[in-house]
Amino acid sequence: MKAYVDYIPAQGCGTDFDAQKLINKLKEKNVVYGIKKDSINQIINSNEVIEDLLIAEGKEPKPGTDGELIFHFEHESKHVGSFREDGSMDFHDLDIVNNVNEGEKLVSKKEAVFGEVGKNIAGAEISPKEPKDPSLPKGENTKINENDELVSTAVGHVSYINEKVSVQKVYKVKGDVDFKTGNIDFVGNVFIEGNVTEGFEVKAKGEIHVRGNVEASHLLSEGDIIINKNFIGKSKGED
Predict the structure, then answer these.
(1) Neighbours of 58 (CB within 10 A)
(2) How far is CA 140 from CA 22, 65, 161, 201, in A?
(3) How many CA atoms lie within 13 A of 17 on its CB side?
(4) What is the dihedral of CA 168, 171, 176, 177, to 10 degrees?
(5) What is the DSSP string of 79-105?
(6) How far is CA 47 from CA 9, 26, 50, 193, 225, in A?
(7) What pLDDT band is residue 11 in, cutting at 50, 70 and 90?
(8) Is the pTM of this model over 0.90?
(9) How many CB atoms lie within 10 A of CB 143?
């Protein structure tokens, strides 16, 4: 990418260089690109010895920009609670259920930008590193539309797991509804393998099915509510 020269001015019967002779000498060494005019002028106007003068320099390739996925839903689990109107924190409401409608945009993409080609001092092109161009993370109940966007094909809960975006028509809780899950407000059916612990709320447009117990909590459903074990109201029940 660089060429340096040492120069000794003509002595005795020697012959001085002019600019063209010097350029021709460089060509003999396959140095044809990025020749520095200032360095050539310095040589042909010098009566002194010159050492390690940069005479030519190639052009480094300009790197491109990687493509980027743009998520249109909260896909990172950073919830610790939600703020009430009075500014206090409600640790029952983690807001981790991502309800989406059919046709809703989930992920779009910022396209990769390719870099610029460089050259070495021999005039050979140097290609830049190819930028990364991520694929849309298509999972269950999603599709890629004509605008190259990932959209939902169902009503449900959208999640990003194992680098795939999927929409679940049934919201499943593998354990208890507690401070790990927070309250649940879902547009479809809710299936809870464990218990609904005291103080929490489960809302569903469809059915609510609880395989364990329901303690003093609120269950609101537009469908059936099925409790496999017991409802423990702790004198807090209401009609």
Answers:
(1) 19
(2) 68, 30, 11, 28
(3) 20
(4) 130
(5) -S-EE-TTS-EETT------EE-TT-E
(6) 6, 20, 9, 91, 99
(7) confident
(8) no
(9) 13
Q: Which amino acid is at 216?
A: A
Q: What pLDDT, in 10s, does the model give residues 68-120?
A: 999 999 877 655 555 556 655 455 667 789 999 999 999 999 999 999 999 99
Write out the two tokens for 67: 């493509």
> Which pLDDT tens digit goes with each residue over 129-184?
999 999 999 999 999 999 999 999 999 999 999 999 999 999 999 999 998 899 99
- Sequence-separated (6 or more) residues with CB below 8 Å from residue 162: none
Backbone angles phi, psi at 6, to 5 degrees: -110, 140
The rounded distance, in Å, linking the Cα atoms of 80 and 95 is 9
- Structure tokens of 235? 């004198």
Between CA 4 and CA 237 the distance in angstroms is: 89
